[in-house]
Amino acid sequence: MAFDGITIAAIRKELSDALTGGRVYKIAQPEPDELLLTIKNNSTQYRLTLSASASLPLCFLTGKNKTSPMTAPNFCMLLRKHIQNGRILSITQPGMERILNFQIEHLDEMGDLRTKQLIVELMGKHSNIIFCDENNMIIDSIKHISGLVSSVREVLPGKDYFIPHTQDKANPLEADRTLFMERVFSSAQPCFKALYTSFTGLSPAIAHEICYRAGGNADLSTAALDEDGRQALWEAFSRMMEDVREERFSPCIVYEAGGRNASQDGSSSGARPTAPAEYAALTLTSYPTALRKGYASISALLEDYYAEKNTVTRIRQRSSDLRRIVSTALERNVKKYDLQIRQMRDTEKRDKYRVYGELLNTYGYSAESGAKALTCPNYYTGEDITIPLDPTLTAGENAKKYFEKYNKLKRTFEALSALTLETKAEVEHLESISTCLDIAQKEDDLVQIREELIESGYLKRKGGSRAKKVKITSVPFHYISGDGYDIYVGKNNYQNEELTFRFASGNDWWFHAKGIPGSHVIVKSKGGELPDATFEDAARLAAYYSKGRGNEKVEVDYTEKKNVKKPAGGKPGFVVYYTNYSMMIDSDISGLKQAEV
């Protein structure tokens, strides 16, 4: 989700409370489009990140420092000359625009007090950081925008600064009921779209939330709302804008179902291999409480949200080569398996040819010379059967021909019976690796998957066969059931094998999604009987960490570990078992607590 006006309003309040009156102690430019300001105020030192990145514009307080280049860029040097040691007078947001204006007081070369403006525009690809004097003349900017790039506004030294109005949107903080009705219901369109296209600073997520609070369907056309529905939408909108005016912000991140148990105090008890779904400066009540993680600070939210997003993006990038290898091999083996199955179907007629040959040896004497068929009793079924004949051959020669066909198909069947099993096992193995790639959360998790692909011959080890194996640091997931039992989940096939055959004892319980790739789940039984709730917790984990994740119900097999065996020559993590129980379960693990590593 990109910054919207309400998020900027929450940031403005937080920055204003923390930084107003503070001194700009240090100015750094660690990236071409990013500033890091160190500000001292009320005996506290703050770091403020300002990023005008086209893909990820940001503004928040952070506790982290960044390495700066040896030679400071020109824009950084200019800011140091003018506003280093300057005092922040105010931080404002014009209307509900995605803009923050820092008014900074400083002494000029003559020792006179002067005021400058550092304007941060957080507008996606149009983001910029602009430095102006007290008369709104641009001194410089982190990005120069000429008339060749933009016909709306030039951002160059010496030009006047103004906010471009490219869209006819109203300020939601100033809207009354009459303006609201005119704007939102002027044309027929989905309610949520009518909201965010009519007013500045509203994102689609906030528009959906307003519709939810109004008790309506966000996708319902505005033309379909009756007077009560329109009034409910106005009241929900009005109450939310009142929260913004009164600065009653409640930042939260929401997660996809099944991944995290997050409470409003900011604590979280689960882990997920995917990024958070959404965030906002106000509580998104349209999501269940269990999927919301609340924050006291919008800066802390933004730092966590984008850190998680960056982690997931990095893992996907790092695993892309592995995914490509697995996908290519899987596609090739699936085609190979389909071809073998078709060839197997062709061998089904082999017994018919054997019967033809035997019957011709028995009744061939009755066949007329040059006949194209012979009808005779089938002593296997007791019914008459018609056998096609080659009229140029004798009955004995026809029988020999059928036996040759039978023997050829028999040999093909015997060869394919083994080959199809091998190919099917390879397909299942590759599907399990694909699932492991979906589960991977850290770069360490990819190491074992890469090692498995090397051992399976899909990858070559860097440095050749003499190269040392890489050190494995990835460990299985560790959860605590509601009843306090330890539950372990393998992240890949090697960990599955380790958990099942080396870590688990005979009376521990083993869980796995039935008939689909997934993790082995081990519950340490502590030598006693497990509560029913713990069985369900472990089954949910087996469902979640499998290819069936997201399905309404997943069938999960479970049995004591002593009933699980490793087949001879089986792939890593592949097992057989003949005594088991099964249950249908959802894949929602939001109520489970993950143990600290």
Automatic annotation (TrEMBL):
Please name the GO terms of the biological process aspect recorded for this protein, alphabetically. rescue of stalled ribosome
In its UniProt record, a GO molecular function of this protein is: ribosomal large subunit binding
Q: Which GO terms describe its cellular component?
A: RQC complex
**Tell me, what's a Pfam family for it?**
NFACT-R_1
The NFACT RNA-binding domain covers which part of the protein?
477-569
- Keywords for the protein's UniProt record, in alphabetical order: Protein biosynthesis, RNA-binding, rRNA-binding, tRNA-binding
InterPro entries in UniProt = NFACT_RNA-bd (IPR008532), RQC_Subunit_NEMF (IPR051608), RqcH_bacterial (IPR043682)
Q: Which domain of life is it from?
A: Bacteria
Family of this protein: Belongs to the NEMF family.
* Subunit: Associates with stalled 50S ribosomal subunits. Binds to RqcP.
Q: State what this protein does.
A: Key component of the ribosome quality control system (RQC), a ribosome-associated complex that mediates the extraction of incompletely synthesized nascent chains from stalled ribosomes and their subsequent degradation. RqcH recruits Ala-charged tRNA, and with RqcP directs the elongation of stalled nascent chains on 50S ribosomal subunits, leading to non-templated C-terminal alanine extensions (Ala tail). The Ala tail promotes nascent chain degradation. May add between 1 and at least 8 Ala residues. Binds to stalled 50S ribosomal subunits.
Q: What is this protein's name? A: Rqc2 homolog RqcH
